[in-house]
Design goal:
alpha/beta, CBS-domain, TIM Barrel, 3 domains, 23 helices, 25 strands, 24% strand, elongated, binds ligand C2E, binds magnesium ion
């Protein structure tokens, strides 16, 4: 049985010829007549008594549901001044009845939507022949549908009803009943009135009136004071709705009175107010829209990725990529000792596209693998060309992305390229960001081992911006730390940046790593770094990234 069907209760059933008196006594005394059932094919519910008073009676004739009587119908009868004597259920019942076939009751929303649309609190569930095998009530539905989560951060005054129907305790119950029917409310508040201030004293609900009807007491002779429930449990407007919800559950009541600082009446909050707040129909509709929108966006994204993937593939085939080289400088020897290779995309349509834009995309589409291969190949070929020009000691750093690094044959592939261009592994350096190191640790350690065996050096790029601490990084056998440009910026003026960078430089020295500062733009930054033990720098101060030809000229100069 699904969750929706688990909230069906067994109904109180009578025939149209039953006397109204009997119906009322069933409603008021028949505790346990609404029971949770687990429906079985033989239509006899295996009931579990949960001690709830039935607030409606279903009328059946010839094994078919023909009508319904609710508490509201009985209150209406009372105010018409009609006695219950000699009246039958059939005379008072509402017919036809909004109901739902058991087989169609596949989820709670169907029941809830029907009840909201028809403004009813009881929904009979019928078998295929039209016999009411169960009853779903608004209260039981709401118990399941009210996620506490929605109430926690919302306040009483957001939803409370300020226009309260009230009267004074000396009023006759008959007048109270009339007021209820006239205003279409299920309760009247009894108050003490002093000038403009109303202080709540008690409450009378439809159920209270029906209970007295059963005793056949003349309601005109009773005053509200004799019938009302009190003391009242009151909350404040600033209380949160979860408190309201919990109090209603604990006291088994459907309304709470809201009072101000001096105990004055401000409003009332009902179960319906809470339920309206989380209208599941709207929520499920909203979720449907969201789901649809997300799937649309995913389709668009997939389409865009595919389109851009095709563009990138085309770009590599048409030679639109180019490597630029940013010099790396030794402040002590005053010489360029190497360069970082930085990719550029010269797109005929888009112009110069930044790697920050297309590298993440290439990662997603997997294009980074052939692209990374192209970068390694181009850089090694360039190293060879420079060596031929007599630049023998340059070390070129190449950025390696996460997907590329986690390729099992990376070291092998690099060795193949080094061999192809006949260059020693010391001429190449791989730059990895910290984020690469925190993924798939076992594989990363294995990769480091292979690179070490192949004598290929590794730098940790953008150090300080990722997730890894230096203590963590020690597990990996790398050679150089690149201090991220964000720490370098204004290092001579920014004491926090200075403290971090100095600590990193000190630790690196102890642990025998090389340190290089990137993004050095000013002489002051460079001087500060050098004075604090960092000799190697890269940044606009030395040079912007240059084309291969410009790089040769830069070195020669
Ligand atoms: P990165 O590896 O940290 O590269 C340094 C970036 O800082 C480069 O940006 C460089 O042009 C820039 N830069 C250098 N000096 C300065 C300076 O003094 N001030 C400032 N503000 N910036 C400076 P670029 O070339 O746009 O590259 C951006 C990122 O794209 C790189 O950051 C790297 O993560 C990635 N990337 C570049 N080429 C490749 C590549 O061939 N493969 C992979 N996987 N990623 C690459
Ligand atoms: Mg880099
Ligand atoms: Mg960097």
């Amino acid at each position: 049985m699904n969750i929706a069907k688990s909230i069906i209760f067994s109904p109180c059933i009578l025939t149209p010829s039953t006397s109204l008196n009997e119906a009322i006594s069933l409603m008021t005394k028949a505790k346990g007549s609404s029971c949770q059932i687990s429906y079985s094919e033989n239509r006899i519910p295996a009931s579990k008594n949960i001690g709830q008073i039935s607030s409606c009676i279903l009328i059946v004739e010839n094994k078919k549901l023909v009508g319904i009587i609710t508490e509201r119908d009985l209150v209406k009868l009372t105010i018409q001044g009609k006695t219950l004597q000699n009246k039958t259920v059939g005379e008072l019942m509402t017919s036809p009845v909004v109901s739902l076939l058991y087989d169609e009751f596949s989820d709670l929303y169907i029941a809830y939507s029907l009840m909201r649309r028809h403004r009813i609190r009881h929904l009979p569930i019928l078998d295929i022949q039209g016999y009411p095998i169960g009853l779903v009530t608004l209260s039981s539905l709401r118990q399941i549908l009210s996620p506490r989560y929605f109430f926690r951060f919302r306040q009483v005054d957001e939803v409370m009803t300020r226009h309260v129907i009230w009267d004074v305790p000396s009023t006759s119950v008959m007048e109270i009943a009339k007021k209820m029917v006239f205003n279409q409310v299920s309760c009247i508040l009894l108050v003490e009135q002093k000038s403009d201030i109303l202080t709540p004293l008690g409450i009378i609900t439809e159920k209270d009136i029906v209970q007295f009807q059963a005793l056949d007491i003349n309601l005109k002779e009773l005053t509200a004071e004799q019938l009302m429930s009190y003391p009242l449990f009151c909350l404040k407007p600033e209380d949160n709705l979860l408190q309201v919800y919990q109090k209603m559950e604990e006291l088994r009541i459907r309304r709470l009175v809201i009072t101000g600082k001096k105990g004055e009446l401000l409003g009332i909050i009902t179960e319906t107010d809470l339920a309206n707040l989380i209208d599941p129909i709207e929520m499920s509709g909203f979720l449907e829209i969201l789901k649809y929108r997300v799937s649309q966006l995913e389709e668009e994204k997939a389409f865009l990725l595919q389109k851009q993937g095709i563009e990138l593939n085309q770009a590599i085939a048409e030679n639109q990529f180019e490597l630029y080289y940013q010099p790396q400088f030794n402040l002590r020897t005053k010489k360029v000792f190497g360069a970082e290779a930085l990719i550029r995309w010269n797109s005929p349509e888009k112009g110069r596209v930044s790697p920050a834009e297309f590298i993440p995309l290439a990662e997603k589409t997997g294009f980074i693998i052939p692209l990374g291969q192209w970068v390694l190949e181009t850089a090694c070929k360039q190293i060879k060309d420079w060596q031929k020009e007599g630049l023998l000691h340059l070390q070129i750093s190449v950025n390696i992305s996460s997907k590329q690094f986690h390729q099992p044959n990376l070291a092998e592939e690099i060795l193949k390229i080094l061999k192809k261009y006949e260059i020693p592994p010391q001429c190449l350096k791989l730059e990895l960001t910290e984020s690469v190191l925190v993924q798939d640790i076992d594989m990363t350690l294995e990769q480091f081992k292979m690179l070490k065996a192949a004598k290929i050096e590794v730098s940790i790029d953008d150090f300080g911006t990722g997730y890894a601490s230096l203590a963590y990084l020690q597990h990996f056998d790398f050679n150089t730390l690149k201090i991220d440009c964000s720490f370098v910026k204004n290092i001579h003026k920014n004491s926090k940046n200075a403290a971090i960078t100095n600590a990193v430089i000190r630790m690196a020295k102890q642990l025998n790593f090389q340190v290089i500062a990137e993004g050095v733009e000013t002489k002051e930054e460079s001087d500060f770094l050098y004075a604090n033990g960092c000799e190697l720098i890269q940044g606009y101060l030395i040079s912007r990234p240059l084309s291969a030809r410009d790089f040769s000229k830069f070195i020669a100069f």
